[in-house]
C-alpha cells in the first residue's frame, strides 16, 4: 500500500471504506471542510499510536515466540539457520522498537511526519514478515517433501498474530498477510511441483488445508478490522457529543454570569428605593400601597438572593471561586451564623439552641464561605420547623474531625427526595402551593463549598419528626 501526498486520506479511506470516507468528509453544508480534515488526522494519529502501543505491549511475548522457534529448529533441524534467522528477527524488532518510540513522542499534528511514520512502520513490517517467512521456508526445505506441520504452524501463528494485533493499520496488515500468504502457498506448492503426487495424497491434502487456513486468517483480519473501525467511529461520536456539551455548558455559564451581573446593578437600586418606601423614609404610604410595596421589597430580596446564588454556582462550577483558607474557630463561626439568622427565627417563632460552642474547635477553611454554608443549613432548618419549634446546633469532635449538626423537629424529608435535596434548582416541595420560598441552590452550593474544603455534608431524616444535617471538616493541624 502506498502512502504519498494524500497519505492521511488514503489511510482513512482504507480503514473505513469509500462510503464511510465520504460520509465523514462531507459536512452538514455539503462542503469538504471543518471537522472532516480534523477527524481524519485524529483517526490517523489514533491508528498509528494504537498500533505502536499494541506492538510494545506484546514485545516480550514476541521475543519468547522467536526464541522458542529458534530452540526447536536448532535442536531438531539446523542450528545455523535458526541462529541466522533469529538474528534477522531481532534486527527487525530493533527497527520497529526505534520507530515506535519516535511515534510515542509525536504530538500528532504534522501530516508529513504521519506519512513518514507510516512508511517506516510499513518497511519494518515488510522486514519482519519477510524474515519470519524466510525462516519458515528454509525450515520446510530442510524437511524435504513431507507434510510440514512445524513450519506451517509457525507461519499460521505469525499470520493470526498479525490479524489480531495489526488491524489498526490496514496497509501494514495487508503487507504482512501478502508476505505470509505467499510463503503459505509456496511451501506446499513447491512440494507438489517437485513430487507430482496423486490427487489423494497427503501433499494435496496439505495444500487444500493451507488454502482453507488462508481464508480463515483473512476472515479473522476482516472481523478485527471491522470491530476496530466501529470503535473509532464510536469514540469520535462520543468526543463530538462531549465537545458539544462542553460548548453548551460554557455558553450557559457565560450567559448566567453576564445576566446575573447585569441584573445586580439595577436590582440594587430598586431594592434601595423599595426599602426607603417600606421604612417610611419618604413619607407614610396609604395602606394598600404599603402592602404592595412590602411585597415588592420582599420579592426584590428573593431575586437578589437568586442572583448571588447563581453567581456563586457559576464560580464554583468554573473553578473560579477563591477560597481564603486560614485557621477558623468553628465554635465562634457557629455562634455568628446563629446570630445572623436570629431575626428570621423570631419571625418564624423558632428558637435556636447552640450546644458545644463553649470551647474553641479549629478547622482550616474560608471563614466567609463556611459561614455561608451554616447559615444556608440553619435557614432551611428554620423554614421547615413548626411554629414555636426549636432548632438545635451541636458542635463536636469525632475522630480527628469537627462535626456541626443542625437539627429541626419539623416536617422531615421523604425517603425518595435525597437527589432533590442537593440538586440544582430543586426543592423537596416543588409544587406551586409550597409554604417555603428559596432558590433551590443553597444546599447544592453548600455541598460544593464543603467538598472544596475536603469535608462532607449529609443528612438523616424521618418524615413528620424532623431532619438533622451534619457537616464534617478536618481539624486544623499545625502542619496546615
If you had to describe this structure to a student in words, what would you say it looks like?
With about 475 residues, this protein is an alpha+beta fold. It folds into 2 domains: about 5-245, no CATH class; about 325-475, 2-Layer Sandwich (Heat Shock Protein 90). Helices cover about 65% and strands about 10% of the residues. The chain contains 14 helices and 7 strands. It has helices at about 5-25, 35-55, 60-75, 80-105, 110-145, 150-165, 170-195, 200-280, 285-315, 330-340, 340-345, 365-385, 420, 440-450; strands spanning about 325-330, 350-355, 360-365, 390-400, 400-410, 455-460, 465-475. Residues about 1-10, about 15-35 and about 430-435 have low confidence and may be disordered.
Amino acid at each position: 500500500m502506498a502512502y504519498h501526498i494524500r497519505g492521511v486520506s488514503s489511510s482513512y479511506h482504507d480503514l473505513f471504506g469509500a462510503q464511510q470516507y465520504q460520509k465523514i468528509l462531507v459536512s452538514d453544508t455539503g462542503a469538504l471542510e471543518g471537522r472532516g480534515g480534523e477527524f481524519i488526522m485524529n483517526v490517523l494519529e489514533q491508528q498509528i499510536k494504537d498500533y505502536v502501543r499494541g506492538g510494545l505491549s506484546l514485545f516480550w511475548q514476541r521475543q519468547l515466540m522467536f526464541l522458542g522457534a529458534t530452540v526447536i529448529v536448532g535442536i531438531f533441524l539446523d542450528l545455523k539457520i535458526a541462529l541466522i534467522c533469529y538474528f534477522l528477527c531481532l534486527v527487525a524488532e530493533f527497527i520497529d522498537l526505534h520507530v515506535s518510540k519516535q511515534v510515542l513522542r509525536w504530538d500528532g499534528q504534522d501530516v508529513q511526519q504521519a506519512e513518514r511514520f507510516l512508511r517506516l512502520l510499513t518497511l519494518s513490517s515488510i522486514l519482519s514478515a519477510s524474515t519470519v517467512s524466510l525462516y519458515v521456508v528454509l525450515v520446510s526445505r530442510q524437511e524435504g517433501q513431507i507434510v510440514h506441520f512445524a513450519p506451517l504452524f509457525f507461519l499460521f501463528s505469525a499470520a493470526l498474530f498479525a490479524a489480531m494485533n495489526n488491524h489498526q493499520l490496514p496497509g501494514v496488515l495487508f503487507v504482512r498477510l501478502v508476505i505470509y500468504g505467499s510463503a503459505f502457498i509456496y511451501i506446499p506448492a513447491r512440494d507438489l511441483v517437485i513430487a507430482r503426487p496423486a490427487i489423494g495424497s497427503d501433499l494435496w491434502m496439505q495444500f487444500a488445508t493451507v488454502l482453507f487456513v488462508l481464508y480463515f486468517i483473512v476472515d479473522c483480519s476482516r472481523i478485527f478490522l471491522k470491530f476496530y473501525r466501529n470503535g473509532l467511529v464510536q469514540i469520535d461520536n462520543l468526543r463530538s457529543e462531549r465537545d458539544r456539551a462542553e460548548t453548551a455548558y460554557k455558553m450557559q455559564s457565560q450567559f448566567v454570569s453576564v445576566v446575573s451581573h447585569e441584573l445586580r446593578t439595577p436590582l440594587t437600586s430598586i431594592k434601595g428605593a423599595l426599602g426607603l418606601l417600606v421604612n417610611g423614609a419618604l413619607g407614610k404610604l396609604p395602606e394598600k400601597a404599603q402592602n404592595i410595596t412590602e411585597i415588592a421589597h420582599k420579592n426584590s430580596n428573593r431575586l437578589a438572593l437568586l442572583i448571588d446564588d447563581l453567581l456563586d454556582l457559576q464560580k464554583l462550577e468554573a473553578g473560579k471561586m477563591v477560597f481564603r483558607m486560614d485557621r477558623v474557630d468553628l465554635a465562634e463561626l457557629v455562634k455568628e451564623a446563629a446570630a445572623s439568622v436570629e431575626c428570621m427565627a423570631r419571625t418564624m417563632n423558632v428558637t435556636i439552641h447552640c450546644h458545644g460552642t463553649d470551647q474553641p474547635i479549629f478547622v482550616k477553611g474560608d471563614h466567609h464561605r463556611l459561614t455561608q454554608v451554616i447559615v444556608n443549613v440553619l435557614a432551611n432548618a428554620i423554614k421547615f420547623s413548626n411554629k414555636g419549634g426549636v432548632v438545635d446546633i451541636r458542635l463536636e469532635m469525632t475522630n480527628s474531625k469537627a462535626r456541626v449538626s443542625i437539627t429541626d423537629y419539623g416536617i422531615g424529608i421523604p425517603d425518595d427526595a435525597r437527589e432533590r435535596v442537593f440538586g440544582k434548582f430543586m426543592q423537596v416541595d416543588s409544587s406551586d402551593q409550597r409554604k417555603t420560598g428559596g432558590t433551590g441552590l443553597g444546599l447544592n452550593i453548600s455541598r460544593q463549598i464543603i467538598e472544596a474544603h475536603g469535608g462532607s455534608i449529609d443528612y438523616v431524616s424521618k418524615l413528620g419528626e424532623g431532619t438533622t444535617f451534619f457537616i464534617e471538616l478536618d481539624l486544623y493541624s499545625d502542619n496546615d
